[in-house]
């Protein structure tokens, strides 16, 4: 296994991409992506259509050949052992895969047989877990879109995988189904330390379930952050863009603006929407700090993502 040594504990890495690039003809789908998912993470992968989310998932699962870089999955990097390790991964990528003319029960029994699962109770338990007990004798082609998503999840969960990869899994679910799906993912994660990689365009739901986030834009992973750190960085307040955070901190202390955090070497977040931006700007200039912008922010995953994209586009333009 691969571990990251921290000050307090050793963290096991479930999945790691290092310098991964992928090109389709002239299109650079992924560009030097580094991504790390620790065991027990629910990792929300966020990006616009075409950003590279599905491509990453297809590379991990061997559905698309790796051109450049290294992927380490549950301790294995390549060859027969990597392919064997894929048996410990459950997936829904692009659309759930099942046989439309077979019933829910028949689909799951067939997959269980393919995976070498001999305990018949596991199929029954899985059907109950994903909420399809009343539809177990229904053919897959007769299911609603949301029920098909549940069937796909059930197929992915057979064999109790160590890693679950879900590409837009809540498409087609009604509000009640989304809430139940969220509850199920948290239950799987907390009860068995199942690691989950999930993408979704519904950022409010992704925020509810994820413990870490990766933001991908035009094939490049521009940010990885855990939920706690994002919440701290994303609280409502004033984001001050400066060229000297040390002097800025001294000025803010003197002005008693309240709680603030140095985000990086160019940004300080003041968690106070009523702070006097004009006064802050004037005092910073007097202290010799160059202020490029003071912006008002109201925190959410959507606003955090939007700001990241805005900053990334500005950097590309420069």
From TrEMBL:
Coiled coil: none annotated. PROSITE patterns: ABC_TRANSPORTER_1 (PS00211), ABC_TRANSPORTER_2 (PS50893). It comes from the Bacteria. Transmembrane segments: none annotated. SMART domains: AAA. Pfam families: ABC_tran. Keywords: ATP-binding, Nucleotide-binding, Transport. GO terms for molecular function: ATP binding; ATP hydrolysis activity. Residues 15-243 form the ABC transporter domain. Belongs to the ABC transporter superfamily. This is ABC superfamily ATP binding cassette transporter, ABC protein. It comes from Furfurilactobacillus rossiae DSM 15814.
């Amino acid at each position: 296994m691969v571990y990251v040594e921290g000050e307090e504990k050793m963290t096991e890495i479930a999945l790691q991409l290092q310098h991964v690039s992928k090109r389709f003809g002239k299109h650079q789908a992924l560009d030097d992506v580094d991504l790390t998912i620790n065991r027990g993470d629910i990792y929300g992968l966020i990006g616009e259509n075409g950003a590279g989310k599905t491509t990453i998932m297809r590379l991990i699962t061997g559905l698309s050949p790796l051109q450049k870089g290294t992927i380490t999955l549950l301790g294995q990097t390549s060859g027969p052992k990597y392919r064997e390790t894929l048996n410990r991964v459950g997936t829904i990528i692009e659309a759930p895969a099942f046989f439309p003319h077979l019933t829910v029960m028949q689909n799951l029994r067939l997959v269980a047989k393919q995976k070498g699962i001999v305990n018949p109770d596991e199929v029954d338990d899985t059907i109950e877990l994903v909420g399809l007990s009343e539809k177990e004798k229904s053919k897959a082609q007769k299911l609603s879109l949301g029920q098909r998503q549940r069937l796909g999840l059930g197929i992915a969960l057979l064999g109790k995988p160590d890693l679950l990869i879900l590409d837009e899994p809540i498409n087609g679910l009604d509000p009640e189904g989304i809430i139940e799906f969220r509850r199920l993912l948290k239950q799987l994660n907390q009860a068995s330390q199942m690691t989950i990689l999930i993408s979704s365009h519904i950022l409010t739901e992704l925020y509810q379930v994820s413990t870490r986030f990766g933001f991908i834009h035009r094939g490049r992973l521009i940010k990885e952050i855990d939920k706690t750190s994002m919440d701290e960085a994303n609280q409502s307040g004033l984001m001050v863009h400066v060229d000297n955070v040390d002097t800025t901190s001294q000025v803010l202390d003197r002005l008693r603006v309240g709680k603030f955090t140095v985000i990086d070497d160019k940004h300080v977040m003041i968690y106070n929407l009523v702070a006097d931006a004009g006064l802050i700007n004037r005092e910073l200039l007097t202290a010799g700090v160059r202020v490029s912008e003071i912006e008002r922010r109201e925190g959410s995953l959507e606003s955090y993502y939007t700001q990241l994209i805005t900053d990334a586009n500005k950097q590309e333009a420069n």
